[in-house]
Amino acid sequence: MLFPSRAHGGALLAALLPAAALAQAPEPTATLPEMQVIGQAPGSLTAPSLVDQRRQVEERPAAARFIESEEFRDRRAFTLRDMLQDTPGVLVQERYGQELRLSLRGSGIARGFHLRGVELLQDGIPVNLADGSGDFYQIDPLAVRSVSVFPGGNALAYGASTLGGAIDFVTPTARTAEAPTLLRAEGGSYGTWRLSGQASRVLGPWDVLGNYSHLSTDGWRQHSRGQYDQFNGNIGYRVSDNVETRFYVGLYDTRQLLPGSLTLNQALTTPRIANPAALAGNQSREVQAQRFANRTTVRLEAGQIDLDTWVIHKSLYHPIFQVIDQDGLTWGVAPRWSGSVMVGPHRNDLVVGGRYFAGSNDALQYVNLRGSRGAQTADGVQRARNYEAFAENRLWVLPSLALVAGAKALRNERDFENRLTGAQFSRTFDGFNPKLGLLWQPRAEVQVFGNVTRSQDVPDFSDLLQTVSNRPTWIGLQAQRAWTVEIGTRGRFERGGWDLTLFRSTLRDQLLQFTIDPSIPAATFNAGNTVNQGVEFAARYDLGQNLAAAGDRLTLGQVWTFNDFRFRNDRQYGDNRIAGLPPHVLRTTLAYAQPDRFFLRPALDWVPQGAWADYANTLRANAYLKIGLEAGVTVTPGVTVFLDARNLTNKRYASDLATLADARAPGANLAVFYPGEGRSVYLGTRIAF
Fold first, then answer.
1. Which residues are in the TonB-dependent receptor-like beta-barrel domain (predicted)?
2. C-alpha torsion angle, residues 664, 666, 670, 672 (rounded to 10)
3. Deepest in the core among 95, 186, 447, 580, taking most CB within 10 A?
4. Is residue 93 part of a domain?
């Protein structure tokens, strides 16, 4: 999260530079000191080491963050929140199982289900479906080596340009794994248990790794039982010192019962009950997905070429207000060149790439007969195609000052055919998203940065096909567009570090939603002018060192995310706050650790004001404070035992909500709140050999 190694800086768009300028560049004249990591695996062409990954993230003149798996491996790491809760600017609100809401800087602020506005990558390759939608079941924290967070236009070098940006989950390989064999077992409250195993081997030029996890839980609430099976593996082949190819495979099987949403009063007084509609319809979500991908890397005298290809098959059986029965295929290819060029005496770091990815989804619906198919109500095919080209470059105008400029051109096509009526609909979204930035590095481990980026979010099929009279109906929505300005600083010193960013996004046609019936997917609309602004802050400080043993430390950590998202002179809502997210989210930790022996980390999560549930700002969730405790002991080298205790005071609160237009409207269904999980305790062990 806070950069511990060196950083290089910013960029200037070099797609306009003549090809004759491309030449091998010498090392930069100013670099931060290398971080020495004892026992760190060296990595490979397709899978860089952690040191290289961190350097690549934190050399950007932007609010990019890097998280190693060490920060979450000795806890009940099951959801994205478990991985990202100590990362400023990232809000993950849990509901049940792995169903949650993910938002960066207001992306998907009103999306009450699944994923929108953030691009998820696994090993740099997209996980989202072709229309931009997706869910989180393919991300297994136990199969992740590191996480890189790129808010907004900071993800341009990966091809992403949405308001939320991108998050890249990097899986281990046999050349970067912590150990050749890893075993893990854990269990705890509400009938929860999980087994996981990972094995890897290096066989000459070949390397192979497989990771499998099974989790089963009865769930905290009624009708929330879940079962998750996740397999991630990869095989690499080193053709030569300059050529390597790696194949990835992922197999995922999710079976989750849905307890539904409640009124605020129910969430605070009887939080463990299920919504009657969820019980009557035996609502659930069953997903079987398979993902296959390849990255081939070729190192040249003038730079490096990465060629990514992928295919994702997803089958969904989802009885809610109706039975949603879908089967889809997404495929894509993404070439990318990165390298260094010289412009006179100055060094440039240039990235040029493109992506084509597309998909087709058979979307059927049936009357829900207690979770089984009844009469058919919809039969359609959804097709999405995306054409993208991007470039980003860093120019060091001074040894301590770098400029960045980049741009992305895109064309997104969405088609829908209603096979019951023969009607066809289509929409094309074109865009051009530039970026300008600056990085100043006054000292070796201090950075100050600022940038301006443009983003564009294209509505997905959940937005374009809205339920009217229990039938999917095509709605001609506009793309969401935004200009974002951010300034920030990050650094480290002997006893701590900091990460501070202020941002302001001016949006047009922001994609927002409101719920009429919690069992029916919410309706999406384009707002007028809106503003998303806020603060992302994280800091840590060693209060003491060598207190009871050599090398021990007592560390205070603080994370603060401030969201101020508002309408601007809206005809209906004036300057009201946009519903969906709380304005302040704070997390404080106090950790005592003796390296390679044990650690103890109490944590306090505080939301001083609940989120508004309606755009009229008449109904909001409650404020809350939760206390948790994490602890771990190294029994013997390679064997650890850990404890993760959550919500120790059994606080009742709403962890997430769906948004309404006006809670005072006659007949408004106020059952839009999801109660947070009560007191829970989990115990586990890890064995590495």
1. 189-648
2. -90
3. 580
4. yes
* pLDDT, tens digit (0-9, with 9 covering 90-100), for 188-245: 999 999 999 999 999 999 999 999 999 999 999 999 999 999 999 999 999 999 999 9
Is the CB of residue 228 less than 8 Å from the CB of residue 215? Answer: yes
* CA–CA gap between residue 558 and residue 538 (Å, rounded): 6
C-beta neighbour count of 270 within 10 angstroms: 13
pLDDT band at 7; cut points 50, 70, 90: very low
Write out the two tokens for 96. Answer: 């049940």
Residues 367, 377: contact at Cβ < 8 Å? yes
Give how far Cα 661 sits from Cα of 164, 525, 548, 590, 615, Å: 23, 11, 57, 41, 5
Q: Indicate whether 65 belongs to any domain.
A: yes
| DSSP per-residue letters across 466-523 | EEETTEEEE--PPPEEEEEEEEEEEEEETTEEEEEEEEEEEEES-EEEE-SSTTSPPE
CATH of the domain at 307: 2.40.170.20
Q: 6 in helix, strand or coil?
A: coil
Tally of domains within the chain: 1
pTM as predicted: 0.91
DSSP alpha helix (H) spans, 115-167 = none
- The answer to whether residue 9 sits within a structural domain is no
11 in a structural domain: no
Which residue in the block uniquely carries the two structure tokens 């077992």? 185
Domain that holds residue 344: 19-688
Rounded mean pLDDT, 126-155: 91
Q: How many CB atoms lie within 10 A of CB 198?
A: 24
Q: Which residues contact 490 (CB under 8 A, 6 or more apart)?
A: 2, 3, 58, 446, 447, 497, 498, 499, 500
* Amino acid identity, position 468: V
- Residue 636 makes CB contacts below 8 A (sequence gap 6+) with none
Residue 497 phi, psi dihedral angles, 5° rounding: -170, 170
Is the CB of residue 326 less than 8 Å from the CB of residue 362? yes
Number of residues assigned to the chain: 689
Q: What is the pLDDT of residues 586-595, one digit of tens each?
A: 999 999 999 8
Number of CB atoms found within 10 A of residue 392's CB: 29
Q: Given phi > 0 = left and psi -120 to 50 = alpha, else beta, which region is 476?
A: beta
At 279, which helix (H) or strand (E)? helix 276-280
| 617 DSSP 8-state letter | S
How are beta strands 511-514 and 523-526 bridged, if at all?
Answer: antiparallel
> Residue 609 is which amino acid?
Q
